[in-house]
Amino acid sequence: MSLPSAPQLLRGQKALVTGANSGIGKATAIALGRAGADVVVNYVAGRDAAEDVVREIESSGVRAYAYEADVSQEDQVGAMVSHMVREFGTVDVLVANAGLQRDAALTDMTVEQWRKVLDVNLTGQFLCAREAAKEFLRRGVVPEVSRSAGKVVCMSSVHQVIPWSGHVNYASSKGGVQMLMATLAQELAPHRIRVNAVAPGAIRTPINRSAWDTPEAESELLRLIPYRRVGDPEDIANVVVALASDLFDYVVGSTIYVDGGMTLFPGFATGG
Ligand code: NAD
Question: Considering the entire predicted model, what is its pTM?
Fold first, then answer.
């Protein structure tokens, strides 16, 4: 089913999306471009995929370029944001999306697996938010562009509140993202900077392929989703665009669950 095309909610704004050459980040970068923003497509590996995303964004008539940086590395994040300010003049929207899983049972989990996930999923969001916030504060509000000086959208997960056995590093990182987001929202709101989060449920992307790529896995997954549909990256992208726009100007420090009701489970009748 095709949806009506999004209005130009972000016309003239400059957006940075981390981990934007795959899955949710890719769909979000494309949706931001359709909404009128110029977009930096961050990636850590896979330049060709990043360039494909750039071309698709450019077809909306806005500017885009790909930038390689590991979000867990302070110097690389600093260089990425400085480069964006030189190229596009500023940053209006940061979508701190990059993330990964390194799954293992607790007793098998190495400290490297633990650290890698915390470094990318939590420290990466801290570093990107810090560098973006410096630019928001430097520039301040430009009323013709937006009512706020800047917007940060943190990509969280339903696992910021639902424990996830066998994934303690990932669940801990997303629990951390919830408090990172809320604290930054409180700290930055007086400067007219809005920080919020989107918490996806089960979305069809490479990160969780084993959960949906066989009929058996998918029907098992659907039991956990009251809406009985696995999400698509565009389901998340649409909410990010809205959240980053002035339509949501009074939304500060919120997490929007985009999960087909997954966080309601098992509080609904399963029959019997
Ligand atoms: P994905 O694997 O398709 O995309 C993750 C992206 O992050 C990739 O582009 C990857 O290269 C990038 N990345 C990884 N490490 C990086 C680093 N050090 N620096 C820069 N980029 C890096 O998976 P996805 O599902 O699109 O995940 C995007 C975000 O959504 C993640 O934060 C994930 O935790 C979150 N999420 C996904 C789901 C889901 O069901 N797919 C559910 C909840 C939350």
Answer: 0.97
